[in-house]
Amino acid sequence: VLLERSELTSGSTWHAAANIHGLHDSTNISRLQHYTMALYKELEAETGQGCGIFQPGSLYLAQTEAREHQLRLQEAKARRYKMNFYEVARDEAERLHPLVDFDGIRCIMYEPEGGNVDPSGVTAAYAAGARQRGAEIHRFKPVTATEAQPDGSWIVRTPKGDIHTQWVVNAAGLWGREVAAMAGLQLPLIPTEHQYFVTETIPEIAAMGRRLPSVADRDGEYYLRQEGLGLLIGAYERKMKFWAEDGTPLDFGHELFPDDLDRIEENMLRAIAR
After folding, report:
1. CA 57 – CA 225 distance, rounded (Å)
2. CATH architecture of 2-122+190-273
3. Fewer CB within 10 Å, N or C, the chain?
C-alpha cells in the first residue's frame, strides 16, 4: 500500500531536471544508478507507459588536475563494473557536440548511456507496474501519525482510516522529516533551492537533426542538456540556499520558487561561454 498525501509527483519530482548517469563517487550508488537506467526500459516494456527516455550520451569535462584524477577514478570503476565510461579525444568530443568550445579542457570522458528521462512519465510507469503486481496506491490520503505496537507492528493513522502493518517505509521526500518525527526520529534532511532555466529554441540545435549529449562541468559549476530544441542549464552551487528549515509546509505540492537567477549568474555565464 502506498499512501500519497496529494497527487503522484507532488513536491520536487514533477519538475526535476531528471538527468541520468551511471557513475558516482560512491560505488554502491554507481551500481544502483546503473541498474535504474536499465530498469526504465524494462518499465516501459512491462507497463506500456513511456518514461521519456533520451540517451544521447553525456560528456564530463575536467579543467583541473584534481577533476581529471576524479574522472579517471570513475573510468577505472566503470571498467570494474562493466559500465561504458571512457575518455574521448577533443575531435571526437567536437563531433559529438559541435556547439561546445573545448578550449581549456584537459580531459573529456564520455558515457554513451547518459541522458535524461521524463520524471512524471517514470513515476506513472512505476505506479502502473506496482498496480500490475498487486499494490494499492491511495492518493489524497496523508499520514497523520504512526504508532509502534508491542509486537513490532505499526498502526498508520490517516483521515480515511487506520492501517495495521508489519513494516512502514518512509518515502515522503520533502516531508521525510515530518514522517520520521511521527516515530520519534530526527532525520538529517533539509531541502535546498536548486535552479535551472530552459532556453527558447536555438536555431543551431534545431538544425542538428539529432539529439545532443548532455555536458557536466564540475569545475565550471554547471551542467547543460538539450530540452526540446533549446537547452536546460543548471548550476552546481557552492553555497546552497536552504528552504523550509523548520519543516516543509503541508500544503506545498506543485508550486515553484521565485526566480533568483542573480545567485547563479556566474555559473550561467560560464555555461554560456562554454
Report:
1. 10
2. 2-Layer Sandwich (3.30)
3. N
Dihedral (CA of 68, 71, 77, 78) sign: negative
Buried b (16+ CB within 10 A) or exposed e, 178-209: bbbebeeeeeeeebeebbbeeeeeeeebeeee
- Assign 253 to helix, strand or coil: coil
174-212 pLDDT per residue, tens: 999 999 999 999 999 999 988 898 999 999 999 999 999
> Where do the CATH 3.30.9.10 domains begin and end in the chain?
2-122+190-273
Answer whether 0.70 is exceeded by the pTM. Answer: yes
Mean pLDDT of 267-273: 91
Closest CA to 84 of 103, 119, 112: 112
The SS3 assignment for 38 reads: helix
Residue type, 42: E
Query: Count H helices, E strands: the chain?
Result: 7, 16
Nine-digit cell at 191? 531541502
pLDDT tens digits, one per residue of 29-68:
999 999 999 999 999 999 999 999 999 999 999 999 999 9
CB under 8 Å to 227, separation ≥6 — which residues?
198, 199
